[in-house]
Design goal:
mainly alpha, 3 helices, 0% strand
Length: 112
C-alpha cells in the first residue's frame, strides 16, 4: 500500500467479503422508510471544527476511458466470461464527491 502523503510503501494483507448476491434478477432490497428521515435541523457541516480530507477519492486516469473503449470491442466477451466486464465499465465513470452528503451520512451513522 502506498501512502497518499508519501513515504515508503507498506505491504498489507487484503480481506474481501464473499458476494452475498448470486443474481441481479432477484428481489430488490428495500430500505426501511425511517432510515431516510431528514437530518437534524442544525446540520451545518461548514461550521464543524473538523478538517477532513478525502485522499482516497480518485477519478479514473486521464486516458483510461479511451483505453477501455478501444479494448471493449476486442475483449468484451473475455471480460464477461471472467466476470469483470461490469467492474471495468463502471471504473470509467467519474463519481462526484459531495462532502456535505458524506458528512450528513456520517452524522446519521454516529451523531457524536
Amino acid at each position: 500500500m502506498v501512502s497518499p502523503t508519501g513515504g515508503d510503501p507498506t505491504p498489507r494483507i487484503a480481506h474481501f467479503l464473499n458476494p452475498s448476491v448470486t443474481s441481479i434478477s432477484g428481489p430488490v432490497f428495500e430500505l426501511p422508510s425511517d432510515c431516510l428521515a431528514s437530518l437534524t435541523p442544525n446540520f451545518e457541516p461548514k461550521k464543524w471544527p473538523l478538517k477532513v480530507t478525502f485522499n482516497g477519492w480518485r477519478n479514473p486516469q486521464r486516458n483510461w476511458k479511451t483505453w477501455v473503449d478501444r479494448m471493449h470491442s476486442l475483449y468484451q466477451s473475455v471480460w464477461k466470461k471472467a466476470g469483470i466486464h461490469d467492474a471495468i465499465m463502471s471504473s470509467t465513470y467519474t463519481i462526484q464527491k459531495h462532502e456535505d452528503l458524506i458528512f450528513g451520512v456520517a452524522e446519521r451513522w454516529c451523531p457524536e
